[in-house]
Amino acid sequence: MKLRIATFNVENLFRRPKVMNFASWSEGQPYLDDYAKLTNLLNRETYSAQDKKAILKLLSKHKLTAARPSHRYFELRSLRGRLLERPKGKPPRVVANGRGDWLGWLELKNEAIADPAIVNTARVIAEVNADIIVLVEVENRPTLERFHDQMLMPQLAAIGAAPYPNNIVIDGNDSRGIDVGILSRHPIVRMRSHITDRTDGNTVFSRDCPEYYIDIGQGRELVILPNHFASKGSDRTGERRRVQSARAREIYQTLRASHEHVIVAGDLNDHPQGSSLDALLQQTDLRDAMGLPQYSGFPGTFQRATAAEKIDYLLLSPALTRRVTRVDVERRGYYAPTKWASFDNITKETKDRYQASDHHCLWAELDL
Predict the structure, then answer these.
(1) For the ranges 95-104, 213-222, 266-275, which has the lowest average pLDDT?
(2) Cβ density class 181-210: b for 16+ within 10 Å, e for less
(3) Could you tell me how far CA 72 lies from the centroid of its own chain?
(4) Fewest CB atoms within 10 Å of the CB: 20, 57, 293, 340?
């Protein structure tokens, strides 16, 4: 039996936070940093004088202190109680003394993704035609199902490929709504989430490291661990990725005691020489599909596919590594004309809105 496995960071399917649509992460990261800081402050049980000062500073910075503030990227919602008081002729001040005094939150504004970009995302997935595909940055399961039925099915039908009757997304820890999910032609018989895993009192996974148990026939079970580690924008030192990598290693090694077919897949947000992934890449028997002799293309999986842009992985247990017959990367959803041909509607003029993703779809075929 041949089994094709893939991983693809789709960068959302229908809607995406506006702040994540800049040309480079460095432009949007300051907004995401402020969003994280303010959200953390607002969620505190008690606001100290210093907390109130920091809250007011961040709100003022983004002009969110007005009775009806208007911001391009943020929405401050207040449903019950009061966070702020706005005395006439005086500057606003924080009057809530903690989370219990008001009900509200800071929200990232979304915008629709251009239709051709969604079609090209579906086209990438259809062209790869994997039996099981890990998807990164998916909004939620209803969105994934709608994408499958409305956008992906026509692309699959056009090439005579089968649909994906099984799809799962478990809501993870990212408040922006970018989770990891899976499409499978084989039954997903059970699952386990790790959203509550903690180390030193802190949540480990930025999204989740779910365990999906898939029946691949003849009494065999494949376990896939989709992942999306912390980005270099939010984790500049790599320390959080090191913690995530170490915990994923523990989960993998526990599984290996009872399962020989295990895969860790997804966007790990660092290249193999970056050291933050050593717990997985150097301290386990997992092998990266792109490091096998069956692969001979460009080294990266992001944008122009340089070695430093290798951030997406299919890590295979030994029993699977021995069965790999092909490894490749579908890159036509991204515009890089000096390196590869893109889909016909992705040109220099349309690339910013029509590209499927900044990431490429990595896949491996196994003869089981």
Answers:
(1) 95-104
(2) bbbbbbebeeeeebbebeeeeeebbbbbbb
(3) 23
(4) 293
Element (H, E) at 190: strand 188-192
Q: Give the C-alpha separation, 37 to 251, whole Å.
A: 30
Query: Quick count: other Cβ atoms within 10 Å of Cβ 71?
Result: 14
Handedness of CA 215, 216, 222, 225 (dihedral sign): negative
Band of residue 14 on the pLDDT scale cut at 50, 70, 90: low
Nearest residue to 310 via CA among 356, 273, 357? 273
Measured between its terminal Cα atoms, the distance across the chain in Å is 5
Compute how many other C-beta atoms are within 10 angstroms of the C-beta atom of residue 81: 13
Q: Which of 36, 84, 68, 44 is nearest to 233 (CA)?
A: 36
d(CA 216, CA 60): 55
Least Cα distance to 83 among 48, 55, 45 occurs for 55
- The owner of tokens 């895993």 is 197
pLDDT in tens, 67-80: 888 888 888 888 88
Alpha-carbon 172 to chain mean position: 10
Do 189 and 159 meet the contact criterion of CB atoms below 8 Å apart?
Answer: no
The per-residue pLDDT for range 22-35, each reduced to its tens digit, is 767 678 888 888 88
- Cα 293 to Cα 21, 275, 326, 330, 364: the distances in Å are 36, 23, 9, 18, 12
- Write down the residue that tokens 């989740």 correspond to: 208
Summarize pLDDT for 120-169 with one digit per residue, the tens: 999 999 999 999 999 999 988 988 998 999 889 999 999 999 999 999 99
Number of Cβ within a 10 Å radius of residue 346: 23
Query: How far apart are the C-alpha atoms of 124 and 142, rounded to whole Å?
Result: 21
Tens-digit pLDDT profile for residues 53-111: 999 999 999 988 888 888 888 888 888 888 998 888 888 999 999 988 888 888 888 77
Tell me if 64 sits within 8 A of 76, measured CB to CB: yes
Q: What type of residue sits at position 323?
A: R
Does the pLDDT value for residue 16 go beyond 80?
no
Domains defined along the chain, listed by start = 2-14+112-367 (3.60.10.10), 25-110 (no CATH)
Q: What is the DSSP letter of 27?
A: H
